[in-house]
Amino acid sequence: xxxxxxxxxxxxxxxxxxVGDNREGCNPLISxxxxxxxxxxxxxxxxxxVISHEARDYTYVFEHFDDYSENPDERRTSIDRINExxxxxxxxxxxxxxxxxxxTLLNPYKGTSYINKPERAKRASFRSKAAEDKIKAxxxxxxxxxx
Length: 147
Hints:
This protein is of the alpha+beta class. The protein contains five helices and four strands, in the order ββααβαβαα.
């Protein structure tokens, strides 16, 4: 997962994202970075949302959680884990931006859907101490990039 820090002299926009179920041999982070600035509106999530995108300095802060697995069951677990890590990171970045008028999170996680008890338990199981340390380190790195 990653956070794009799009910094100008007056304001910093943040975008939380993840790379999904990519195949072995591709570099999903590099591919995603390129897509963010594509002139194809379907792919250019950052370019579409950042005002005066060409006048910004960009930093990508990223963290890795799982290695690619050929096993479909393991891959499904990895996808579920990274989805939860993205939600968690997004919530933490929302906290970072909450009292800072110079920071905006472009894609805040709303969390408005109903989640049944087994799914909530599965998601909670991914929120380990090791994962928390990675989330905190990522938020700290974003804070530094915004300074």
